[in-house]
């Protein structure tokens, strides 16, 4: 069996279609069919049941998925770590929080690619709950996230730094001159991140404990949209402080003085607990840790 065959097998498993997998991989459908037939012949089993135009994975195919994922992960690690050169070559699959992508990460990525031109970084946005499983399955090699502290036995933290969340409003909003607590948010139009975001969950849970019903006028995963609504006087945005640095400097937004409960979040660099720290991972982690705006506890 070959890495190419296993990669094709996983793509078909994901897309539930030979033709869709062929299109995604840039192959002719006949090539994909041949690869799977060769793999089935070598293993002596059927991997997919063909039922007209639909397919379903067999029990043998289902057992192969975990092995195929490990094989592809090992192949990437070999390319990134087994080299006589200081600069690793290969693909590094990285999960990043959207908040970091609009603040620190572009600067970090520019430095990394300049120093490691032979490493290709493939970026995927991640949410808190999905991170341990994505690392365990090998779908991601490393995660750089902004979230509540991730405490999971499957995950190893290479670096963490305490961060903060804040309430932001237009300078013309009357609330900016006040010191506020939970009770002061009772009738304030709130601009919040989406339902799957821990920032929103932390605030809503806090308001529930204080028996405050929030007046939510906008929910979106985009911090840029939340900031624009706040700038235009349409509400108060609850977002990470690092995402609003430019708007504070230019005077477009002001951070409200908050005296309520604390909302502890951390920027974190994570890998699976059993994963070897290859040269590519070490190089990126080192840049994150020494970034001029990212000093902190480790």
Describe this structure in words.
It is built from 11 helices and 14 strands. By secondary structure, it is an alpha/beta fold. The protein is 40% helix and 23% strand.
Order of helices and strands: HHHEEHEHHEHEEEEEHEHEHEEEH
Query: How many DSSP E strands?
Result: 14
- Uncertain segments: 294-298
| Shape call | elongated
Strands in their spatial order, largest beta sheet: 4-3-5-14-6
- Main pleated-sheet profile: 5 strands, mixed
Short synopsis of the structure:
This protein has 298 residues and is of the alpha/beta class. 40% of the residues lie in helices and 23% in strands. The longest helix has 23 residues.
Keywords:
298 residues, alpha/beta, D-Maltodextrin-Binding Protein, domain 2, 3 domains, 11 helices, elongated, disordered C terminus
Please write out the topology.
Blueprint (H helix, E strand, L loop, with lengths): L2 H13 L2 H8 L3 H15 L4 E4 L2 E4 L1 H23 L8 E7 L1 H4 L3 H11 L3 E7 L5 H6 L5 E6 L7 E9 L1 E5 L9 E2 L8 E4 L5 H12 L5 E5 L3 H9 L4 E5 L4 H6 L3 E2 L1 E2 L6 E8 L6 H12 L8
Parallel strand pairs: 3-4, 3-5, 8-13, 9-10, 9-11
Antiparallel strand pairs: 1-2, 5-14, 6-14, 7-11, 7-12
